[in-house]
Write a sequence for this structure.
DNA sequence: GGGTTAGGGT
């Protein structure tokens, strides 16, 4: 019974809506193994519902025609057939072919859009919205039904859509949720030749996905020049060429330097003037001049001042105040000369252009993995880019393009602009790829593989942000970052702000950094604009300036009507549209934070809390001011504060920068002063420690030392006191044993240590008394004794005491006197070196010191001042028994030569004389003379005895102590 | 001491 039913279900599944298909099939497979009547019933209902849904889609298929005027309309049958026959096709053709709007309809004609949605991607939001409007109009429906669109901040799409127009970023974002892109049966990737990061990532991903989803069709549109490369990437997909509807453009090459002329080379400005002159002779028509940047545009509008009464000279660049941008689209009476950056090449279409002047240059952003700095240098544009520029004057009639370079130069240029993926930091892309588990990035089928060093550098940044671990796996932080629709650096700041309780402020700041700066500086009102903006300026932090601006605008937007706010913005040089963007971004991120359960603080956060959070995303963009206006940053990079910064006049010692870009110089833009200690704390995981100079720190009974802290090569702390045991426990243990235990440089109350110490002192004293150095076992033996007994983790007084208290074994550390005295020195005559000097009833201490040459060398008798007169000096001549023989010998040797020769060998005479003398009785020299006469019969005359040259240690030293003990 | 191109998003 069940079996035929299952077969019926499997059959019906074929007619379901595709987004349901895979889910329902999985349910069916589960039930086939494990049938359950109730669930089978539910499945049947679901299948019927989905079938019905698909039928409704089919019924919603509108009637449509192709506008005859469009070239693509001629090919619609051919294209529809190609779609049916191939999984991937390329459609190329220049602007005006109508491919963008007609392709979705051709897909419908080919039967697409019923099983699943036809997804159509655009690089820019405005274009996506405009195209969906246009399509809805042509299909006689409203946006949101048959045709939907979805861009950031605006979603008018639904499962009812047959066609859904969106930005490529949206499709990428959807990938995170649905790796199979199941809701689509067809994808149109438009403007693929632009080769943005998004497009390259999408094309790589789709190449893999197409193998798994054989039912998915892919249509890629591109400019003709790039089509082959892309087709090759998709296993030589067929390329269908659609003619454009453009007029011929005449090329004229007018290089600055003419090789056939002796004239001096022109500069760019002069060349523009003469090109405009030349074009004026061709008849009236608006001119579009392509220049690399705002600077050149400003300069050119100055040079062209003299034309102002005849022509409108209009600058055009993305940061231009919107009011001024609008003038481009409302031509006045005069001939217009529009001085434009690359905005006019792709993003904006300037209507009614008859002439183009192309400088052949553009500022190109390149990220250097070597210096980790973004460069924005003026470069020669590619042939593709030059042709695109020229094409801008062939849209309404035949045009003329003057290139300010020669034809050879053109022919030698790169055919296309290097795709973005080869010249940008890849951290954000890698984060996404890791997050959707795309596996090894080296294996990912990019059309142009990014340099391995660039990939490595992307991982480096992610590791610095703690988004991935050493094995390139996503961390908890990384998972959160992947869910925040913002640059990973900025996302990291937000996550850090949760910890410092500054999310409110950091959210406003990070969204400002992600959006474009809404502050406008119109060319002729720069000072007025600066004055208005100065109200928000913070002298320590450009981030705070942004936050001040945010608070002001938020407050105003709550109080004022939409129109009043608009007027206020205009008056105060704020770009209202950009402010809306900032506001929207803020709202979106706030929602994303809510999902991550990150709360906004109600109490204002202080400077440290805000900037420590910001710093966590900018750890490799810090700098130390080591010259008047110059900073030393990571990897020996030098940079300057950008002149637009509020800190430009008062540069702080330490700063961090939201971005570091090299233009005319390496500039740090949006900066703030920081405390170097913050770097140590926030950047703990990146700090390198260079320790040095370990020493015994007696007061703390531990091994101290110093360390230098660096972060990517920058010294963030030159000399910091440390507990050396942390960096080198082994060495610290050695130093501890030597100083604390062997040398006794440790004050403590531990009996074992005290006793050992006093034993050692006793033996040392013995050495002094016997004037020998070979009694105490040597230092190394003592060291070895302790080293053998102590566990490896004992590195300081504190750790020793802990161990000692907890461990009975520690008692074995006790030394005994025999181990301390060397074997060959165990029979020393100590009695001959008394510690007490006796004279009648007087007993005074004798101390010994063994240091030949020193004043203290020898025996010292300590005499209190009060007993000084009682001291019998004659008795002290005898010094101590242990030294008397040596003293006698010294006396004999001190005799004049004629006398001395009577007593040869002197040591024998000294020994015999000493044996006969009675120690301490009468005058030493008198008694000695007597004894010597007894032995030899020779009498030493009194003046022959010399005492001056006697070694010091053979004369008793006297130390008189007064009442105070001095 | 002195001034940066343009797009895109969970």
């Amino acid at each position: 019974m069940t079996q035929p039913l299952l077969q019926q279900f499997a059959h019906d599944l074929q007619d379901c809506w595709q987004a349901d298909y895979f889910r329902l099939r999985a349910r069916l497979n589960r039930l086939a193994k494990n049938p359950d009547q109730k669930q089978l019933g539910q499945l049947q209902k679901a299948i019927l519902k989905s079938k019905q849904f698909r039928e409704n889609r089919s019924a919603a298929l509108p009637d449509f025609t192709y506008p005859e005027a469009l070239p693509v309309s001629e090919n619609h049958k051919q294209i529809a057939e190609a779609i049916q026959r191939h999984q991937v096709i390329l459609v190329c053709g220049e602007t005006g072919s109508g491919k963008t709007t007609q392709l979705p309809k051709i897909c419908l004609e080919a039967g697409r859009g019923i099983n699943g949605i036809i997804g159509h991607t655009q690089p820019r939001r405005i274009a996506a919205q405009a195209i969906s409007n246009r399509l809805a109009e042509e299909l006689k429906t409203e946006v949101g039904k048959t045709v939907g669109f979805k861009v950031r901040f605006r979603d008018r799409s639904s499962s009812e859509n047959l066609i859904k127009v969106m930005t490529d970023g949206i499709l990428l974002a959807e990938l995170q949720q649905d790796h199979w892109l199941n809701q689509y049966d067809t994808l149109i990737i438009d403007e693929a030749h632009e080769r943005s990061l998004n497009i390259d990532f999408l094309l790589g991903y789709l190449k893999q996905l197409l193998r798994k989803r054989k039912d998915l069709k892919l249509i890629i549109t591109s400019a003709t020049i790039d089509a082959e490369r892309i087709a090759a990437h998709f296993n030589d997909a067929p390329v269908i060429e659609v003619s454009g509807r453009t007029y011929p453009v005449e090329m004229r090459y007018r290089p600055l330097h003419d090789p056939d002329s002796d004239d001096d080379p022109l500069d760019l400005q002069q060349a523009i003037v003469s090109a405009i002159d030349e074009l004026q002779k061709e008849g009236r028509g608006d001119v579009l001049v392509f220049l690399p940047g705002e600077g050149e545009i400003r300069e050119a509008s100055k040079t062209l001042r003299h034309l102002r009464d005849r022509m409108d000279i209009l600058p055009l660049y993305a940061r231009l105040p919107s009011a001024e941008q609008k003038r481009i689209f409302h031509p006045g009476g005069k001939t217009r000369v529009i001085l434009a950056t690359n905005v006019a090449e792709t993003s904006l279409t300037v209507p009614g252009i008859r002439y183009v002047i192309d400088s052949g240059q553009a500022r190109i952003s390149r990220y250097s993995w070597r210096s980790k700095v973004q460069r924005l240098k003026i470069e020669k544009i590619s042939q593709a880019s030059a042709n695109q520029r020229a094409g801008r004057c062939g849209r309404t009639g035949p045009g003329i393009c003057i290139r300010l370079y020669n034809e050879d130069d053109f022919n030698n240029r790169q055919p296309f602009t290097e795709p973005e993926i080869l010249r940008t930091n890849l951290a954000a892309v890698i984060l996404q790829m890791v997050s959707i588990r795309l596996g090894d990035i080296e294996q990912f089928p990019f059309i142009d593989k990014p340099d391995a060093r660039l990939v490595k550098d992307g991982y480096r940044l992610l590791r610095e942000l703690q988004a991935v671990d050493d094995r390139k796996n996503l961390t908890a932080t990384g998972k959160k970052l992947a869910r925040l629709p913002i640059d990973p650096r900025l996302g990291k700041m937000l996550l850090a702000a949760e910890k410092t309780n500054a999310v409110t402020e950091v959210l406003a700041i990070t969204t400002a950094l992600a959006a474009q700066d809404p502050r406008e500086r119109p060319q002729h009102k720069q000072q007025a604009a600066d004055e208005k903006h100065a109200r928000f300026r913070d002298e320590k932090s450009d981030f705070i300036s942004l936050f001040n601006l945010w608070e002001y605008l938020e407050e105003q937007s709550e109080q004022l009507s939409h129109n009043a706010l608009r007027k206020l913005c205009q008056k105060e040089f704020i770009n209202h549209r950009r402010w809306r963007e900032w506001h929207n971004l803020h709202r979106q991120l706030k929602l994303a934070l809510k999902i991550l359960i990150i709360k906004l603080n109600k109490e204002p956060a202080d400077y440290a809390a805000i900037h420590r959070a910001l710093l966590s995303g900018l750890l490799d963009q810090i700098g130390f001011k080591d010259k008047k206006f110059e900073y030393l940053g990571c990897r020996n990079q030098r940079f300057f504060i950008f002149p637009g910064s509020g800190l430009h006049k008062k540069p702080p010692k330490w700063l961090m920068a939201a971005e570091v870009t090299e233009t005319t110089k390496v500039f740090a833009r949006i900066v703030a002063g920081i405390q170097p200690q913050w770097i140590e704390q926030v950047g703990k995981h990146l700090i390198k420690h260079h320790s040095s100079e370990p020493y015994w720190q007696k007061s703390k009974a531990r091994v101290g030392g110093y360390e230098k802290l660096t972060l990517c090569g920058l010294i963030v702390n030159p000399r910091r006191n440390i507990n050396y045991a942390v960096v080198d426990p082994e060495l610290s243990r050695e130093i501890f044993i030597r100083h604390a235990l062997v040398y006794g440089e440790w004050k403590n109350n531990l009996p074992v240590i005290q006793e050992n110490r006093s034993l050692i002192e006793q033996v040392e004293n013995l050495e002094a008394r016997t004037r020998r150095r070979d009694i105490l076992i040597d230092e190394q033996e003592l060291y070895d004794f302790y080293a053998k007994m102590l566990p490896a983790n004992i590195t300081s007084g504190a750790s020793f005491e802990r161990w000692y208290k907890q461990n009975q074994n520690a008692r074995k550390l006790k030394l005994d006197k025999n181990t301390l005295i060397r074997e060959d020195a165990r029979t020393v005559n100590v009695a001959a070196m008394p510690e007490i000097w006796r004279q009648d009833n007087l007993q005074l201490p004798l101390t010994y010191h063994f240091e030949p040459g020193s004043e203290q060398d020898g025996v010292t008798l300590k005499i209190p001042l009060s007993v000084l007169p009682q001291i019998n000096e004659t008795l002290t001549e005898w010094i101590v028994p242990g030294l008397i023989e040596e003293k006698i010998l010294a006396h004999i040797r001190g005799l004049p030569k004629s006398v001395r020769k009577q007593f040869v060998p002197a040591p024998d005479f000294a020994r015999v004389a000493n044996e006969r003398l009675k120690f301490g009785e009468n005058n030493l020299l008198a008694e000695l003379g007597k004894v010597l006469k007894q032995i030899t019969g020779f009498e030493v005359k009194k003046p022959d005895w010399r005492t001056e040259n006697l070694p010091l240690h053979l004369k008793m030293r006297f130390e008189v102590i007064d009442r105070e003990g001095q």
Notes: Residues 37-59 of chain A form the longest helix (23 residues). DSSP finds 38 helices and 28 strands in chain A. Residues 683-828 of chain A form one domain.
